[in-house]
Specification:
With about 240 residues, this protein is of the alpha+beta class. Helices cover about 15% and strands about 30% of the residues. The chain has a six-stranded mixed β-sheet, with helices on one face. Bound molecules: the ligand O=C(O)/C=C/C(=O)CC(=O)C(=O)O and magnesium ion. The site of the ligand O=C(O)/C=C/C(=O)CC(=O)C(=O)O has 12 residues, from strand 1. Magnesium ion binds near residues 34 and 83. It catalyses: a 3-acylpyruvate + H2O = a carboxylate + pyruvate + H(+); 3-fumarylpyruvate + H2O = fumarate + pyruvate + H(+); oxaloacetate + H(+) = pyruvate + CO2; oxaloacetate = enol-oxaloacetate.
């Protein structure tokens, strides 16, 4: 009879043959950090976190260029949040800050699409943010950028335009909690697997989107991506 395995003993997965460059196709976890830029916390009227605040999106939240971002039927204030994504290259369970970057495969540009009116309601009622942050298409994602193309992820400029007008421009050096700190902190609570994605939080300038708006977002000197907003049609 097979004996029961403890959590630590289960942490030696078979080597994956899947290319991490297509992580969004794997059905991997999406971990989102919130209030990681002081000016964004301020514009939301929120206190600065003493420790990272994080929440999850389902893997069905991924959407790629060529497909629209859908405004949920229950939302009348859809917001953009441009964020640097960190793609895990190997399992991380309670890793130290010093070892954290060895677990990173690369980066991606992500949008943490937010039904802001729903989030306000959830905050008032003390409810989880799933309806506000986890709906289908709430995680537009760029191509994968291998780690060797970005020597220092804390020296990047990320930006977002709506219909050609600049809305967000942030320096990743302004994050409250660094990437090694986030990986170390999160991995002690949620084991991170190969292909998992961490959204590192939004800089200031989040704002409303209308149906048919065109979003363009980028990491300066690295990549850019475009998405269009459409309305979710309620079928049920
Ligand atoms: O503080 C709030 O009301 C809202 C915060 C967020 O939506 C958190 C994020 O997703 C973020 O900071 O990126
Ligand atoms: Mg966010």
């Amino acid at each position: 009879m097979q004996r029961q395995l403890g959590i630590r003993e289960r942490s030696a997965p078979m080597a994956s043959s899947r290319p991490v460059a297509r992580f969004w196709e794997w059905g991997r976890n999406i971990v989102c950090v919130g209030r990681n830029y002081a000016e964004h916390a301020k514009e939301m009227g929120s206190a600065l976190p003493a420790q990272p605040l994080f929440f999850l999106k389902p893997s069905s939240a991924y959407v790629r260029e060529g497909s629209p971002i859908l405004r949920p039927y229950y939302c009348s204030n859809l917001h953009h949040e441009v964020e640097l994504g960190v793609v895990m290259g190997k399992r991380a369970q309670a890793v130290s800050q010093e070892a954290a970057m060895e677990h990173v495969a690369g980066y991606a540009l992500c949008l943490d699409m937010t039904a802001r009116d729903t989030q306000e309601e959830c905050k008032k009622k003390g409810l989880p943010w799933t309806l506000a942050k986890g709906f289908s298409t709430s995680c537009p994602v760029s191509d994968f950028v291998p780690k060797n193309r970005i020597p220092d992820p804390h020296k990047l400029k990320i930006w977002l335009k709506v219909n050609g007008k600049l809305r967000q421009e942030g320096e990743t050096s302004s994050m409250i909690f660094s990437i090694p700190y986030l990986i170390s902190y999160i991995s002690e609570i949620v084991t991170l697997e190969e292909g998992d994605l961490i959204l590192t939080g939004s800089p200031k300038g989040v704002g409303s989107l209308e149906v048919n708006d065109e979003i363009e977002a980028g990491i300066s000197d690295v990549l850019s991506m475009r998405f269009k907003v459409a309305q979710q049609i309620r079928r049920a």
